[in-house]
Tyrosine recombinase XerC
Amino acid sequence: MEDYLTRFLQYIHQRNSGSAHTLDAYRRDIEQFFAFLHAEGIESLEDVDRIVLMNYIASLRMDEQGRTRSSTTIARKISSVRSFYHYLNEYVGVLNDPLQSVKGPRLPKRIPEILFVDEVRSFLDSFDEQTPVGQRDRAMFELMYACGLRVSELVSLRLDSVDQEEGLLRVLGKGDKERLVPFYASIGERLQRYVDEVRAKWIGNEDHDILFVNQRGKGLTTRGVQYIMSRQCDRCGMNIRIHPHIFRHSFATHLLDNGADIRIVQELLGHASLSTTQIYVHVSRERLRTAYEHAHPLAQERKKTG
């Protein structure tokens, strides 16, 4: 079983360029499944049937400390085992698929958190561009919003990722898929000033082409970006939980709010499936409903009487 797991993880890494975090999650989930099988006296993956799977799913309801697991966690663990069996069926020759008729728990649709445009402006304007750090941070976070970047994509940017002449950013996304995202002129100017006036001084003797660096000339990490964002939120008094991905959510929602075609937004985000992008249509509709109920006098009246 362990040999199959090792081969499966190699397959996931080669096929999807899975991050270390993703591979660790797969490993933990499937090792937990193996532990259940061993406890049940099952030594072969061929011997796992639907009843065994249903008993395994039932065992997931509680964690090792006796706490109830969330439906999201259970669904992820089932999905990991399902992917593992798909691999075994396709590449190893294991014939049975005990998950064929097993469904995970139904999950509620989660609406992504977003910022309104004036909140984005307030956050970006809160950086002091008279200081080198403020100059870098303003350029960095505005680029995230301007191009809908994941934080992992941001910290992976290189100097040659920015095409100032064409106004295009070359982004290496999930699965090493490259996409081109346009950016507007003012953020291009900010980036160039940061590169010329700040990065050039900080880079020192470092020999790399990472775009966003700290004061020691080292590339920023995803955790470092998260820390900078959280600290700035506290400084400017934003009363919402904020995280780097919120700029990506806001980017997509604001484009759709302003009439962008959903397939264009899909391409700009680097989504493989249109259904992934469609969640932002729901965000726009929810914002529309909220604005309507807040502004319409009879809707307000009904809420009061209700």
User: Anything to note?
Assistant: The longest helix spans residues 71-92.
